[in-house]
Amino acid sequence: MSARRRRARRGRSGAAWFAVGGAVLTMAALLFVLVPLAAARNPLSLCVEHPSTFPQDGVAGWHGDQLENAALIISTAKSEGLERDGQVLGVMAAMGESSLHNIGYGDWETSGVVNPDGSRTTSIGLFQQQEWWGSEETRMDPVGAAELFYTRLKRLDGWRDLQPSHAIHRVQINTDPEHYARFEADAGEIVDALSGPCPA
C-alpha cells in the first residue's frame, strides 16, 4: 500500500472517530438539559397520609418532621372543607411561627417577648399559640393546633380576598403583616407535592 493511501485511510479513520466523539458529546449535552426538564414536568405527587413515602431530601428545603407536620396541617384543612388556598395559609403560618417544628417554647423563652400589657407570652407549638387559644395539650397537638388556626381563619370575613400573609396576620395577631409572605412559594410547593393520590 502506498504512503498516500495509508495517509488517506488514517485521515478517514480520524474523521470517523471525531464524528463519534462529537455525537457522544452532543448526547451528553442533551441529557444534561433534558433530564432536569423532564423532572420539572413531573413534579412530586405524594400521598399526604403516608409520611414514609416523603423524600429524604425533602421538598423545597423542608425535611423530616417539618414535612410530616405540614402533612397534618394539610389533612386538617381538608377535613375542615378548605381547598388549596386554605391549606397553603396553614403551612405558611406554621413556617413563619415555628419553622414547622412542634416546639414546646416560644418568644418569651427565646427572646423575652412580652404581650402589650407587659405579661410574658405563652406561645407554644406549631402555630405558637398563647394560652388563650386553648389548652396546652391542644396547642401542642399538631392537628389540634391546626384546628384552632382554621377555626379562627374561617371566622375572618373575606379572608380569601386578602393577601395570604395579611390573612394569617389577622388570625395570628403578630406585629408584622408581611412576616409570612416569604414562605408562600415554599408552602405552595409542599401543598402541591403532598396532594397526590392516596391508595384506596
State the main characteristics.
8 helices, Lysozyme, 56% helix, mainly alpha, single chain, 200 residues
Task: Show the helix and strand layout.
Elements: H1 3-41, H2 64-79, H3 84-98, H4 107-111, H5 136-139, H6 142-155, H7 164-172, H8 184-193
Low-confidence stretches: 15-21, 28-41
Percentage of residues in DSSP E strands: under 5%
DSSP helix count? Answer: 8
**What share of residues is helical?**
55-70%
CATH class of the largest domain: Mainly Alpha
Q: Kindly, what is the distance between the CA atoms of the first and last residues, rounded to a whole number of angstroms?
A: 75 Å
Total beta strands: 0
Assign the CATH architecture of the largest domain.
Answer: Orthogonal Bundle
Query: Main beta sheet: strand number and arrangement?
Result: none
- The CATH topology of the largest domain comes to Lysozyme
CA radius of gyration is: 27 Å
Characterize the overall form.
globular
Helix/strand order: HHHHHHHH
Total number of distinct structural domains: 2
Question: What structural category characterises the helix and strand content?
Answer: mainly alpha
- Average pLDDT level: 85
